Amino acid sequence: MRPTRLSPGLLWILLTICPAVLAGASDGLRGTGDLGVIVERATGSIQIVETTSRTSLARITGLGDLSHASVKYSRDQRHAYIFGRDGGLTQVDMLKREITHRIIQSGNSIGGAISQDGRLLAVANYEPGGVKVFDAKTLALVADIPTVDHEGQRSKVVGLVDAPRQRFVFSLFDAGEIWVADFSQGDSPRITRHRDVGRQPYDALITPDGRYYIAGLFGEDGMALLDLRQPDAGVQRIMEGYGRGDELLPVFKMPHLEGWAIAGDYAFMPAVGHHSVLVVDRRDWSEVARIPVHGQPIFVMASPDQHAVWVNFAYPDNDTLQVIEVDTLELTASIEPGPAVLHMEFTPRGEHIWVSVRDANEVHVYDAYSLERLARLEVQSPSGIFFTARAHRIGF
Amino acid sequence: MRPTRLSPGLLWILLTICPAVLAGASDGLRGTGDLGVIVERATGSIQIVETTSRTSLARITGLGDLSHASVKYSRDQRHAYIFGRDGGLTQVDMLKREITHRIIQSGNSIGGAISQDGRLLAVANYEPGGVKVFDAKTLALVADIPTVDHEGQRSKVVGLVDAPRQRFVFSLFDAGEIWVADFSQGDSPRITRHRDVGRQPYDALITPDGRYYIAGLFGEDGMALLDLRQPDAGVQRIMEGYGRGDELLPVFKMPHLEGWAIAGDYAFMPAVGHHSVLVVDRRDWSEVARIPVHGQPIFVMASPDQHAVWVNFAYPDNDTLQVIEVDTLELTASIEPGPAVLHMEFTPRGEHIWVSVRDANEVHVYDAYSLERLARLEVQSPSGIFFTARAHRIGF
Q1: Full-model pTM
Q2: β-strand B330-335 against B321-325: which pairing, if any?
Q3: Which residue segments constitute the domains of chain A, with CATH numbers given?
């Protein structure tokens, strides 16, 4: 049988390109339920990790200023959205391990959210103050919401979260207002404004069921509560005692409200400026207990099975993690991962917890029950750790 | 330049196989967070679906008897495990859209569970009674737990669930026992037996935090409760009034306990044989209310934002779905999807609900708030609908 004649060009294509693509395909074809992103704060990069065998899959660079950066996920858990401090919004394809879209959407921003249906991304901006909403697929601008208060002043936006019924909720730091932007009827949102909620809301949280939006106040004690099922009832003040109080203690870092934990009938929250964790009855927001801890708490996180609450601390006590048992409200463990423990993230079903130890340039993985250290990953100045299971949760 | 000589065989390989694989690769490369499986009960097949644009991606056949079939997912959400009634256990690669492993592990089985770390699969068996545990990757047998009671009788196993700390919990129908198999120390489980829990436990549920295991009793009224954080306290009896009572009403179908809903401070559960949904205080398991509904409830499911509870019904009222508002405990809506509404599943963040309408050979997708029908998929005798977000939940 006669050999076929084939031009060198075509032969080259078949022999080189094809195997290359095959390799790429076999790399790329994988589930995305066990993926995550770790922010490398100092280098403007991220690492894509997987929690099944606890390895790093790739590093993506060129993401700008990632201090206070946060990460959201597309509803199919293929794409990560990185919200940078410099107004950068970057869409990363975690399967192809590359940046697919990147825009600088403002001068200075502080976090974002993704809509209930996964179609819209919202970003909270400091300079100029406002919220911009983008198409999650293309990052094309969908809506621009300048946060101009009733006196015509533009206000910084903080505490932006997604809420059920295709809503975004956020607070105006300078104006002391809480706004609800409702996208359920299309891309021109219906905006509801709640005024005089308190002085300088600086951060906020939404409960896991997406019902209660709670803003912390920097300018006074207490917090502002909005029931998103009954928004017409307006904003009420809760926990008058929460804040720095009259003593005006030195506050090394205002705690993150995303660091709140709801477990069982309690909410656990960092006391501002005090070495204690507050335990609050989540039905009437009354204080149940104050648990003395190692330092000023920053993140207070409940394990997915709600048996324990993990706490990290502000400088100079930030080498330590402590564990509080939810049933007894007692400290049951204390470990020292190393210098500058910035953030923690549980695996979705709670068997492990990943911990950023910034100044050791390491992320540690611990068994959430035995506290045994299972793995150590090299990460440059790690800060936030975000797993893709967040794509399936309200307010994450 | 001289053309290169190439044997017809090699040329055939390059020209045919390579493009084929390329096509496969581009198909296969996708996130798995928006995937799901719909069981086609009558034909022993499943459809792989995606919830972002609400389409069917593939049909997989040859899965045996799928009546009462249930589906679990690997922790990376790439593989689905289908537990058949005939003892078949099938691992499906949802990206390659093919069966990767299939075994017949017993003569007759009723559901399974996947361990907290995703490494182990457990299957509950009727004939012969017992639990078999398999490696989730290979389906190789890891442990065999024959359920022989204290009188030496082998017992059917029901109500098998996963629990935190690498445990499986299940009930012995004939023996009236609840067993806990602890795999946290390795593949030879530590078994704890709780005897005399009540006559004929027929199904069970575990609360979303993995703390309370509750078994329904077929042989008497009431339910058996085990606190998995304090197993030494033993099993206690709750809700003495729950069951068929003395009237011995005709029960067309025992309700599924996975059909229970925990929302806010309440548990919503189907009343056995009655046209009502029971509302129970989840702190002391006392009855708070009885809500009259359209028929005998089967599944009672809370929306992810816990604002509503959806209910379907037993024959002959199984053409209808009703919606109960959690805050007011009032019926707020009633729709008629069609003949034989067998199962419902919410999208992970609750914007949509998918509904199996078996005798119309359709699955409907509704907006969970407006109740508008958004899509209709052709599915042969659809029964269970399972989305991959279950991989990240305890007891799902």
Answers
A1: 0.92
A2: antiparallel
A3: 42-83+337-388 (no CATH), 105-241 (2.130.10.10), 252-336 (2.40.10.480)
